[in-house]
Amino acid sequence: MSTQFLLIDGYNVLFAVGLARKQFGPGQFEACRRRLLQGLADRIGEEHRLRTTIVFDAQQPPDDAPSEEMFAGMRVVFSVGTDADSVIEQMLLQHSAPKQVLVVSSDHRLQRAATRRQAKWIDSERFWERTIGVVEESKSASTREEELKAGEVPVDPAEIAKMIKEIRARETAGDGRSGMSESSSSEEGEGETVTGRYERELMERAEEALREWNEGASEGA
After folding, report:
1. Helices (H) and strands (E) in the chain, counts
2. What is the pTM of this model?
């Protein structure tokens, strides 16, 4: 996201994404609040978390909680003696670069306040939907490789071929030569190169998946 600062209406997002309830038992509200904070931390990159403020109404703050706390680098504010909307409005008025602020709330009052300060705004539900893919994109290629080898995801031969090609490219770049000799491999493979080991493990998984598919097709015939 290109906006430099995020100013989030905590309870508004909580209800918009379905994490809140009409009634809460002891400790349940705090648990939902923590789930939201963790969800936001997962969806917002580290750089943006450091410039994110989440404001909650203080009617049901955590027991013995301060008016402010930090969560995964994000500033969490509990409105004391007033409501969250007023706190967010005040933050907008005092912000030194309001044009670089994105207000996350479906509350029309806050959307108008953002417009007056020439800040941007986005509905809570839309913001949540737009950031869903961030979690998936953060997975590394090696994690995907491990998932394939472990049989945790469907095997696509074309994807495996592409992955092997990328492994070879990474290894070649790291080795500084056009290839990797058998003698330069790790001892654990007894002469097998790292590339060779990955190729073998991935291809074994592909062959296993093909056998499973054939057996399933035979049983269904």
Report:
1. 10, 6
2. 0.58
